Amino acid sequence: MSTKENLAEAFAGESQANRKYLAFAKKAEADGLPQVAKLFRAAAHAETVHAHAHLRAMGGIRSTVENLKEAVEGEGFEFQKMYPPFLEQARAEGDRAAENSFKFALAVEEVHHGLYQQALSAVEAGADLAERPVYVCEVCGNTVYDAAPDKCEVCLVPKERFTLIG
Amino acid sequence: MSTKENLAEAFAGESQANRKYLAFAKKAEADGLPQVAKLFRAAAHAETVHAHAHLRAMGGIRSTVENLKEAVEGEGFEFQKMYPPFLEQARAEGDRAAENSFKFALAVEEVHHGLYQQALSAVEAGADLAERPVYVCEVCGNTVYDAAPDKCEVCLVPKERFTLIG
Ligand SMILES: [Fe+2]
Ligand SMILES: [Fe+2]
Ligand SMILES: [Fe+2]
Ligand SMILES: [Fe+2]
Ligand SMILES: [Fe+2]
Ligand SMILES: [Fe+2]
Predict the structure, then answer these.
(1) Which among B64, B135, B166 has the least Cβ separation from residue A36?
(2) Start and end of every Ferritin-like diiron domain (chains A, B) (predicted)?
(3) Would you state the pLDDT for residue B107?
(4) CATH placement of domain B3-57
(5) Which end of chain A is flanked by fewer CB atoms within 10 Å, N or C?
(6) What pLDDT is stored for residue A84 in this prediction?
(7) Any idea which fold B132-166 has?
């Protein structure tokens, strides 16, 4: 394989290791093993350093306009092409956990697609977006401006389950 | 594809989207676009929700002993099997950025492999690791107990480039 392909594979591996170790850290905390949890968090931080170094080495961080175009394309792929057949298959298998997970992600990627398109238009016109608070639902990832809704439109949890993004 | 395979692919996609969006957020800050940066951070947070939901749906979070075994295996694969040929290929292509990125990751995964083995032994013997501070090098990911070294053994930067993990 070429170095370009190797960087892509290494970025994929480091990205997934980071996410796993953060999940394993929470599990270790819940198991009453705070120092093991800290080790998982430390390794997760190191995998962030590796993932971002690989991403820079592959020229993956470009101008914000280019980055927004890539984000719009990625979100479009996920909600239009990737998640619909995944959702169908989970229903066919009767896997309710997977079905819910795919359903929430599909709905939220469509939201992200729209938000990134607005941001792209603003930056192409030479301006930042207007300053507004952004909230994210901890259950489905729903991403909304200004205020958390009384009930999440995607997964129906109450507004207390939303986090304000700093 | 089966739902099991679809969950693995969706987890890989969500994990990489999160890492990209965090990198794009830093670039947007540097470009003087703080609200676009905030949108990238919000979407990154949402992709964390998705990645962890998919990981739970695929049964990917088990007991801490099982999680540590998976971590030991993953780190072993990376430093013994994955990174050595990647490093060779980068040298053959004369790609210095990739060479450095692979070299640092290879060295640090070997460190992680040892640290996770110690943790596994402790937890298998029924105890947490002893409480100690953990520091991570922001340049190479080197992960050390107790204190940052005067000079990073892996990438040679001074101790100021280490971060204490909370
Ligand atoms: Fe790594
Ligand atoms: Fe998204
Ligand atoms: Fe929600
Ligand atoms: Fe997502
Ligand atoms: Fe590692
Ligand atoms: Fe270092």
Answers:
(1) B64
(2) 1-127
(3) 98
(4) 1.20.1260.10
(5) C
(6) 98
(7) Rubrerythrin, domain 2 (2.20.28)
